[in-house]
Amino acid sequence: MGSLVVTQKDQFTAMRRVLNTNVDGNVNVMYALTAIKGVGRRYSNLVLKKADVDLSKRAGELTQDEAERIVDIIQNPLQYKIPKWFLNRQKHRTTGEYSQLVSNAVDNSLREDLERMKKIRLHRGVRHAQNLRVRGQHTKTTGRGGRTVGVSKKK
């Protein structure tokens, strides 16, 4: 069953490119934006409310103007009064800035953070370098990387 909103065929876009990510046009806008790395459901919901976009729309039904507003709010959240605690990069180590990382910036910052931890021989960095569990899990019996260990049967 289709949506109750009737749109013209020339306005609908099946696949839309937003922030270097393919966004499915057939999905609800709020959930379609979650395909962008660094944008979750709650952040997507907040961005759409700030952009005054109807939450019941499909992503393919967005106008060019609405799409540009959404991208601008995602990239500059503090200018649109999105609270600092809502952002995914709070108080950057060197600059002290609060920002929302999206797309490739998420991967880059994670890689930089891991490299810094390895370089200063932080415990977390050492565990990452050795491909071991980092967050305090038990490793005596689990996570052995495919080797099967067991008791051999007597014949």
> Which class do the helix and strand fractions yield?
mainly alpha
What's the pLDDT, averaged over the residues?
A: 85
Q: Tally the helices: what do you get? A: 5
Unreliable runs: none
Q: Largest beta sheet: what is the strand line-up?
A: 1-2
Shape: extended
Q: Helical proportion?
A: 25-40%
Alpha carbon gyration radius: 22 Å
The count of DSSP E runs of length 2 or more, i.e. the number of strands, is 2
Beginning-to-end CA distance, first to last residue: 63 Å
Largest sheet: 2 strands, antiparallel
Beta-strand proportion:
5-15%
**Which series of helices and strands comes N to C?**
EEHHHHH
Outline the structure in words.
With 155 residues, the protein is mostly helical. The chain is 32% helix and 5% strand. It contains five helices and two strands. It has a two-stranded antiparallel ribbon. The longest helix is centred in the last third of the chain and has 16 residues.
Summarize the helices and strands and which ones pair or pack.
Blueprint: E1 15-18, E2 21-24, H1 29-32, H2 41-50, H3 64-75, H4 104-119, H5 123-129
